[in-house]
Amino acid sequence: MSDPGRRFRWLMWLLPASFREDHGREILQAWREDAREGQHRVWTAALLDTLRSAPREHAAAWMRDCRFAARRLRRTPGFAAAAILTLALGTGATASVFSLVNGILLRPLRWRSPDAVGLVWPVQPSGDRTWVSYPELDDLRRDRSSLRWVAGLTDLRVHFADGGTGQELQALAVSHDLFELLGVAPLVGRSFLREDDRTGAANVALLSYDFWRTRFGRDEGIVGRSIRLNDRDYAVAGVLPAGFSMLPPTSVFPDRVDVWLPLEPHLTARDRTIRFLHVLARVDSPASFAPAADDLRAYGDRARRDYPSAYPGGAWTFTIVPFASDVLSSTRTPLYLLFGLVLLVLVMACANVANLLLARGARRQHELAVCTALGAGPARLAGELLAEALVLSICGTAIGTAIAMAVPPLLRALDPGALPRLSDVRLDLRVAGFALLLIGLSVAIFAAAPLVERLRIAPAAAMGGRSGGRTRRAARVGSALVVVQTTLATTVIITTLFVGESFVQLDRAPLGFNADHLLTARMTLSPKYPHGLEAARFFDSAVEAARQVPGVSHAAAISQLPLSGAMLASTFLVDPASSERRIDADLRGITADYFTVVGSPLLEGRFFSAQDVETSPDVAIVDAAFARRLSPDRSAVGRRIRWFRRPDREIEIVGVVGSIRHRGPSDPPRETVYRPHRQQPRTTMFVAARTIGDPASMASSVRAAIAAIDPLQPFADVMTMEQRAARAVSRARTSLMLAGVLAAIALALALVGLYGVLSFGVAQRLREFGVRVALGAHPRAIRSMIVREGALLTACGTALGAAAAFVVVTTIRSSLYGTHVDDVRQYAIGVVLIFLCSALAYWLPARRASAVDPLTSLRAD
Amino acid sequence: MSQKGRRAPDAHLPLTPMVLHVLLALADGDKHGYAIIKEVRRRTNGEVELGASSLYSVLRRLLSDGLVNETDERPDPALDDERRRYYRLSRFGRDVAIAELRRLDSLLHQARAKRLVFDHQP
């Protein structure tokens, strides 16, 4: 039979080590006496008693250990500051990137079950998606099958008469049940009704929260009152809640929306071939996307059969994709890449702190051995170290979390459009939980090696040893940590070099025009200028007025400015008249001087002139991409094309210009057909003025010159072309900036880590060096020995790091631009950079070792 | 804890019943742990059962707050087990116990005034 005392001792393992060490013997004795005196239920009572007191004693023991640890750390402020700052850098960077991942990718959109909302797209024979036409939306709404709700949206700009001035508002015309689809109720007033969404219905509008706040000062009395949009009265039906926004599904969708209007009364086209609607649909659950996609394919087959002329090329189909994952797909890879890099940086920071603790442990070995000899058990010593690690980690993570809280506002201030959903990035329970996890994770990583080391202390050896010499084992652990750090730093740096190179290539990519000294603004005319000649005449006068401003050399107007997000996808029929051949191309209306203003070269033929007006023959200028598609081996000038919406009129190509990357440097140029704006008039055009001096400073004089013609017409979205170009690459730039900061942190951590290990190793081996010098070793030999040891560690680390970087870069190769995974230059630069930093880190300890005075170092023993 | 850094007796009030029982047990002389357990059991007719872990958890706090001291004085070696540790109520611990008992007494008076309890309730 086993000894009951032994079993009771097992029970006492539930109590903290320090408590057991102080009172375990007495508790056991008291229990034995109780048992001996024949008390009832001694086991049950002991179990309950232990379970009751254990949590309290553990909490008290931790508090006490942490207090002692804090006091001990205060005695070594240098060590404490180094460890806390290193952890703050690591956890701060990690928590910052996690708060971005959380706000942008993990936080659900503020709709009802947003993961069951999808986007419906027609897919063209080329495989490209396109928008939905109104008859198609109508079909989908009538014949929903597995789609529970279907709603269409289109963006439009409206003229808001605000007192004596005009303002351009960003509007969305939406199906009346969009808000039911999304599960969003208005904050004030009512949503749209079925009756509002009919041609001829009374005009109603819903206001966005921000527009209501800034323009109407949150006045709830606005509901029922009317506002004047496009020279018509609109009754305000309600105001949408503050957090509600529509994440832009494509680049042509507006970033913000001021007013919401019912779709049907604001339709600009009802033709099956004019596709301009974004369509949202709700399915029963995320699992229902697959059957919904099958239904849509079947619908596509029916539509193709019923309206063959609307689906040229035959192989059109319809599909549905989950909204959030589709819209955020371009952000997901860079963010997860950043998150991966930042985790590596965190591991590096932890490795640094582990090294610091190892070094400190070695210095305190004598003291710890005395404690052990006096009866402190290994568990108690381990508890002390864990408490110290916990205090360091809590302090570091607290500072790190403060850094993380400062990052999103900083990013918002630098560039609000840098990342989608930036306004949703904030400290929430998940980020707080992640910070707690970081504390646990970092303690587990950096305390493990020193803990193992401490548990192995043999008191006799340590007390008898000389000046707390470092064990061979600790030295090996330290070297391993350096290799790990160098590996990680090399991985982070090479990956960042690739991302950086990609950005440089993107920034240098020729846009096809000269963005310098160009002031641009958008003008949406009020209905005072009905579609057509009046609008064209206004823009001619506006361009002329802008050109007269001192400091402006040229001015022009275009219906869809490059990099503005505006585009009009269209289709052209190619001659001869009987041919069914079509070319999809963007259509842009321009004033005569446009190409001179933006500095785009004429490759063939002529530019438009003042004679190309509504009464003269239809003419067009095409870009090189369109000319190539038309016929790669024949000149395009003189050939005739027809716009698919007016197939009866032939348009003669009079010139070919260079291709322009309208949608940004990373998108290839799209085939484009330019028409004289007199022959293709629009009520919204962008005015562009080439200035002699700083274009931004000319904005007010150009605005004043145009206002002199008609003060009510809004001059909106005023930006220099360079600002537009910067905005087009701002997401890439933000990712690069964050990766660059991480790489700098990684390099600094690797440098400090390497220096710490080597200089500590040198300090521990001063006696050995003293003996070597005394025996005749040349200081240079000692120096080269240290450098050799350091170089060996660096070589191992960089080799492993380069291999790891290859894997990382291969994983993200689809996000790279203008660079390739086997670009040896980036690897070479990364490795050389690490070697240079490492050389710095081991040069100082090596110098110290070689300058050692043998007498002093031997006497110190 | 030094006398200077010690808080006033009232700052420790109210005491938990268990703490008060331990202080009462030590009021009439030094005792070792198991003696305290037995004394409390006897005095309360077994209604209050002080477990060994709970007792030492309480004693640990009382030691660190200076209400109880460990003593080197031993009884007759013939009656003693050398492995035992003895605890003594400190002057400060006595003040704290008195303050707590006064507090309870005052409460009892108020209850009597409201005729909630009587002097010799059956």
Write a structural description.
- The complex is a heterodimer of chains A (about 850) and B (about 120).
- With about 850 residues, chain A is of the alpha+beta class.
- In chain A, the strands form 3 sheets. In chain A, strands 1, 2, 3, 4, 5, 6, 7, 8, 9, 10 and 11 form an 11-stranded mixed beta sheet that branches. A 6-stranded mixed barrel of chain A has the order 14-15-20-17-19-18.
- In chain A, helix 16 packs across helix 19.
- Chain B is mainly α.
- Helix content of chain B is about 50%, strand content about 10%.
- Chain B contains 4 helices and 3 strands.
- Chain B is globular, with a radius of gyration of 16 Å.
- Classes of the chains: A alpha+beta (about 850), B mainly alpha (about 120).
- Chains A and B meet through helix 2 and helix 3 of A and helix 2 and helix 3 of B.
Q: What key attributes describe this structure?
A:
heterodimer; A: 861 residues; alpha+beta; 11-stranded mixed sheet; 6-stranded mixed β-barrel; 25 helices; 22 strands; 52% helix; B: 122 residues; mainly alpha; 4 helices; 3 strands
- Helix percent of chain B reads 40-55%
Weakly predicted, low-confidence segments of chain A: 464-469
Radius of gyration of chain A: 36 Å
Q: Shape of chain B from CA axes?
A: globular
How far is the N terminus from the C terminus of chain A?
55 Å
Q: Unreliable segments of chain B (pLDDT under 50, ≥5 consecutive)? A: none
Question: Sheet bearing the most strands of chain B, described?
Answer: 3 strands, antiparallel
Provide the β-strand percentage band of chain B: 5-15%
- Supply the helix-strand structural class of chain B: mainly alpha
Percent range of helical residues of chain A = 40-55%
The number of helical runs of chain B is: 4
Amino- and carboxy-terminal Cα gap of chain B:
44 Å
The biggest beta sheet of chain A reads: 11 strands, mixed
Beta fraction of chain A: 15-25%
Average pLDDT of chain A, to the nearest integer? 84
The general outline of chain A is elongated
Order of helices and strands of chain B: HEHHEEH
So how many helices of chain A? 25
Q: Which strand order do you get reading across the main beta sheet of chain B?
A: 1-3-2
